[in-house]
Amino acid sequence: MQYYDPPTQEMRFVLEALNYEEEVASLEKFQDFDLETAMAIVDTMANIGVEKLLPLNQVGDEEGLEFDPETGSVSLPDGFRDAYQTLVEAGVMGLTGPVEYGAAGAPEPLGICFTEIATACNKSFSMCPGLNLGLADALDHHATEEQKEYYLEKLVTGEWTGTMCLTEPQCGTDLGLLTTKAEPTGEEDDEYEISGTKIWITFGDHNLTDNIIHFVLARLPDAPEGTKGISAFVVPKIMDDGSRNDVYVTGLEEKMGIHASPTCTMSFEGATGYLVGEPHKGMRAMFTLMNMARLYVGIEGVGLGEISYQTALAFAEERRQGRSLDKDKRQEDEDADSILVHPDVRRLLLNVKSTTQGLRALGLSVGIEVEKSRHHPDEEVRQKADDYVQLITPLIKAFGTERGFENISDAMQVCGGAGYTKDWNIEQYMRDERIAMIYEGTNHVQALDLIGRKLPKDNGRLLRNFQERVMAETEACKEHDELTPLVEAFEKAAGRLMEVTMNLAQVGAEDPEEGAAVASNYLNLLAMVALGHVWMQMARHAIETDADDKETRIKTANYFAEMVLPESGLYKKLCDVGKDPMMDFDLDEF
Ligand SMILES: Cc1cc2nc3c(=O)[nH]c(=O)nc-3n(C[C@H](O)[C@H](O)[C@H](O)COP(=O)(O)OP(=O)(O)OC[C@H]3O[C@@H](n4cnc5c(N)ncnc54)[C@H](O)[C@@H]3O)c2cc1C
Predict the structure, then answer these.
(1) Residue to mutate (ligand 1; options 135, 203, 401, 442; most atoms within 8 A of CB)
(2) Tens digits of residue pLDDT in 434-473
(3) Ligand 1: which atom is nearest the Cα of residue 167?
(4) 217-246 CB burial, b ≥16 within 10 A, e <16
(5) pTM over 0.85
(6) How far, in whole angstroms, is CA 359 from its chain's centroid?
(7) How far is the CA of 230 from the centre of ligand 1 (A)?
(8) How far apart, in whole angstroms, are the C-alpha atoms of residue 158 and residue 161?
(9) 55 CB-contact burial (10 Å; exposed 0-12 / middle 13-18 / buried 19+)
(10) What is the mean pLDDT of residues 243-270?
(11) Distance CA 535, CA 344 (A)
């Protein structure tokens, strides 16, 4: 049983609360995307998700993929091709891609809404459009005009799909260890022969399209060691004359989840590839691709958290066990009361609801700032928007996926033993979500990025700008007495963050191991404050617009304040401890 009603009303509410019209639709590039148009697009995507992707979700999980070792070709379960064509015809494959090449050119918040809905409906399938948009973005920023002409239209219309080929057997997190080679063919300036093995390549082969474009990191013969010697290439499966390029899938992984998403071992056997950007500067193109991908992966936790919440709620509304501890609330004409009367069932559901809503708003806030950072006419506004995107993206990826996983687990708990069976499908969501904490840079790598790059940047400017926003919102919320619990809890959390940050700036600069030891807990602490901030924005908007669900919204905000935000105290304590509890051990003591 799958319960899912795409939360389009909630998405509209959040976009209104975050001033989408003023912040995004007013930008010249997005004049055709006012809120009504944006929501009409979201509704269309929601219908496609529910009608085409959701019915294939369990099918994909159970049937999995077919691999033919003779030809190296991979087939997805029946129905996936048809679903893919529906997305292509609806123009969803290139939703946020460049209009010059036939894409819709929609703003990122719509890409985020689509990612959430598509992931909830069918996470395996949703990974394919995500890769296409990421590759198109990287090519749009780094490829030559000729390359853009050749590849972009086909990618954004969905005629072809893309992959991202980074990982090798000896090189995962540490891309500096990469050994795939690129030798000039001597025929065209940008043409190379690519040789090496890549592993765990998502959608490395499939039967959805005739051609697949691989984005490959490799080393030129004269490359310096480490990440400074990595170049980026595009390697088509099928060449422009229709011949087969020498890149083959040699195996498929058996995985815990996402059974309908091919995870391929790829052998590049002197395959023809074309350099993207400058030699040895491939990491730049890779970061363009990765930055949006990190945001989208974080949203996977929101999508699967939401469908799990809806499932758990449907279960809880039906299930009767035990009696309410408050005699007045008992339904005496029934043998037992709904489990919704029990405080702990409510705690579990509200944990999931309040953090899922918060993470959705945080993701959309980043989507809005992405567009401001790219298209706002005022340079200072662009800079501040970019600061926000850089600071918050690692939180969305790491906290979004970790809390998403925990939320699915809490939703399973609400359903008791039934939640652990296949009947309610939460177990699939849990298996499918787990990988999101690992790929696109493990969650700890996000934390290292936060404390190692984002915090020190320009003497802490990113965090200072964030504080300014937060303080303005806190002051605005103080006008509303109903929000006192939220404001008070928020100020405590923000104070903890500042204390830890000051300490970290000192201790971390002297001893990088201290910084690394607390990085993950620091990221969680900052995530608490960032979520508190968007909750203040949502709650204040509900009050100031007298929203229909104002009372529920305020109660949920205050639940978040009193039951979730105090976690910031724990994260602070763990940060204060520093590295000793881990680093005091010798290697042979493990
Ligand atoms: C289903 C699936 C799909 C994937 N899709 C793709 C794809 O499409 N393209 C692609 O290129 N790759 C893909 N990957 C690979 C994925 O990106 C890597 O698994 C990920 O980057 C982590 O690398 P690793 O698995 O080698 O872990 P390792 O790098 O071996 O890390 C192991 C552990 O050590 C930690 N660690 C490593 N280095 C450090 C450090 N310096 N400091 C602190 N801790 C550290 C990590 O956080 C992790 O907990 C996929 C993987 C899977 C399982």
Answers:
(1) 442
(2) 999 999 999 999 999 999 999 999 999 999 999 999 999 9
(3) 11
(4) bbbbeebeeebebbbbbbbbbeeeeeeebb
(5) yes
(6) 10
(7) 18
(8) 6
(9) middle
(10) 97
(11) 23
